[in-house]
């Protein structure tokens, strides 16, 4: 059964919380440590396979812009799937974006992360 509830950050799995905390401060090394070796990361239709490719993406994504990140929502889909919704504001085209970070977990590691526009 799918359960959608808004959760405070402290009720997210530690893997999601700690990955996201590292990602927000652009610490790709720490963020990557929460990825499974065979992790898949998808952003803007581009797919990065494996921890090495995902690390390069995490290191370089958005580096040409200044922006802030604020968590505005989170929910549990099931025991292995979680969604964190964030609002970005910055110097990128459009200046504001709301994104869903959709996590799939296995053995306390991120196996898949899909970053997509939050539905309006």
From TrEMBL:
InterPro entries: DUF4440, NTF2-like_dom_sf. Pfam families: DUF4440. It comes from the Bacteria. SUPFAM superfamilies: NTF2-like (SSF54427). Signal peptide: none annotated. Residues 14-97 form the DUF4440 domain. This is DUF4440 domain-containing protein.
């Amino acid at each position: 059964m799918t359960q959608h509830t808004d959760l405070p950050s402290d009720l997210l799995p530690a893997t999601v919380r700690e990955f996201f905390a590292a990602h927000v401060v652009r610490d790709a090394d720490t963020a990557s440590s929460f990825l499974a070796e065979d992790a898949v990361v998808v952003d803007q239709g581009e797919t990065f396979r494996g921890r090495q490719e995902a690390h390069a993406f995490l290191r370089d994504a958005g580096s040409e812009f200044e922006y802030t990140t604020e968590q505005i929502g989170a929910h549990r889909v099931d025991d292995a799937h979680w969604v964190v919704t964030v609002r970005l504001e910055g110097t990128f085209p459009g200046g504001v974006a709301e994104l869903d970070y959709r996590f799939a977990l296995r053995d306390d590691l991120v196996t898949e992360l899909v970053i997509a526009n939050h539905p309006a």
